[in-house]
């Protein structure tokens, strides 16, 4: 089961869990209402996995690449982490599948509060186009993640505020329709 929780207000190291106290866990259903979808897969067989293939077919995730985020492997590691942790949105869904290591995807709920989603090996997630979010490593400082895409990747992050985009408007409409 995915672990997710509301965050505390502290501004210290984002790699720490930042669980609100008393704890306020968030379940899959609540994530779904924000348009966030989650799957658990067997990451050891990502190169030949019928379950992954099925999801890719059904959802038209035809393109993919893999990023490894750790100090020694990623050029401009610190800069990239800073960019990932800036609150942003995309005009397309962000689809990530954790092949190894772990990290946090933070998403805004309807009231603009941060929900932290702990993602580890085997976790796959879709963040809908237009949702404000950010990413941080955890204290393990290592993640290997697949990114999937519908069609050709046209990848741009727009830092908040980015409310004028159609994708943001569509997402807010979606939120308004979910109870
Ligand atoms: C993004 O938008 O590319 C990210 O949030 C980075 C996550 S990398 C595991
Ligand atoms: Ni993103």
Automatic annotation (TrEMBL):
Membrane topology label: Peripheral membrane protein
Cofactor: binding details: Binds either 1 Fe or Ni cation per monomer. Iron-binding promotes an acireductone dioxygenase reaction producing 2-keto-4-methylthiobutyrate, while nickel-binding promotes an acireductone dioxygenase reaction producing 3-(methylsulfanyl)propanoate.
Region (Disordered): 1-22
A cellular-component GO term for this protein: plasma membrane
Pathway assignment: Amino-acid biosynthesis; L-methionine biosynthesis via salvage pathway; L-methionine from S-methyl-5-thio-alpha-D-ribose 1-phosphate: step 5/6
UniProt keyword Hydrolase, yes or no: no
GO BP annotations, alphabetical order: L-methionine salvage from methylthioadenosine
CDD domains (alphabetical): cupin_ARD
Molecular function as annotated in GO: acireductone dioxygenase (Ni2+-requiring) activity; acireductone dioxygenase [iron(II)-requiring] activity; iron ion binding; nickel cation binding
Pfam families: ARD (PF03079)
Residues spanning the signal sequence: none
Catalytic activity: 1,2-dihydroxy-5-(methylsulfanyl)pent-1-en-3-one + O2 = 3-(methylsulfanyl)propanoate + CO + formate + 2 H(+); 1,2-dihydroxy-5-(methylsulfanyl)pent-1-en-3-one + O2 = 4-methylsulfanyl-2-oxobutanoate + formate + 2 H(+)
Binding of Fe(2+), residues: 88, 90, 94, 133
Compartment(s): Cell membrane; Cytoplasm; Nucleus
Record-listed Ni(2+) binding positions: 88, 90, 94, 133
Cofactor requirements of the protein: Ni(2+); Fe(2+)
The keyword Cell membrane is assigned to this record: yes
Top-level class of the enzyme under EC nomenclature: oxidoreductase
Bias type Basic and acidic residues, positions: 12-22
Keywords: Amino-acid biosynthesis, Cell membrane, Cytoplasm, Dioxygenase, Iron, Membrane, Metal-binding, Methionine biosynthesis, Nickel, Nucleus, Oxidoreductase
E.C. no: 1.13.11.53, 1.13.11.54
Complexes and interactors: Monomer. Interacts with MMP14.
Function: Catalyzes 2 different reactions between oxygen and the acireductone 1,2-dihydroxy-3-keto-5-methylthiopentene (DHK-MTPene) depending upon the metal bound in the active site. Fe-containing acireductone dioxygenase (Fe-ARD) produces formate and 2-keto-4-methylthiobutyrate (KMTB), the alpha-ketoacid precursor of methionine in the methionine recycle pathway. Ni-containing acireductone dioxygenase (Ni-ARD) produces methylthiopropionate, carbon monoxide and formate, and does not lie on the methionine recycle pathway. Also down-regulates cell migration mediated by MMP14.
Family: Belongs to the acireductone dioxygenase (ARD) family.
Protein name in UniProt: Acireductone dioxygenase
Lineage: Eukaryota, Metazoa, Chordata, Craniata, Vertebrata
């Amino acid at each position: 089961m995915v672990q997710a929780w509301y965050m505390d207000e502290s501004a210290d190291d984002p790699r720490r869990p930042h669980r609100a106290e008393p704890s306020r866990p968030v379940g899959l259903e609540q994530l779904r209402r924000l348009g966030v979808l989650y799957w658990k897969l067997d990451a050891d067989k990502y190169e030949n996995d019928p379950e992954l293939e099925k999801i890719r077919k059904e959802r038209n995730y035809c393109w993919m690449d893999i990023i490894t985020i750790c100090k020694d492997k990623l050029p401009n590691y610190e800069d990239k982490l800073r960019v990932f942790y800036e609150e942003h949105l995309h005009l397309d869904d962000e689809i990530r599948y954790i092949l190894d290591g772990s990290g946090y995807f933070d998403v805004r709920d309807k009231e603009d509060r941060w929900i932290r989603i702990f993602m580890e090996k085997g976790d796959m997630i879709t963040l809908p186009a237009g949702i404000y979010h950010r990413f941080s490593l955890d204290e393990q400082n290592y993640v290997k993640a697949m990114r999937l895409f519908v069609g050709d990747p046209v990848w741009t992050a727009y830092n908040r505020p980015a409310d004028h985009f159609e994708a943001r408007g569509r997402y807010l409409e979606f939120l308004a329709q979910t109870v």
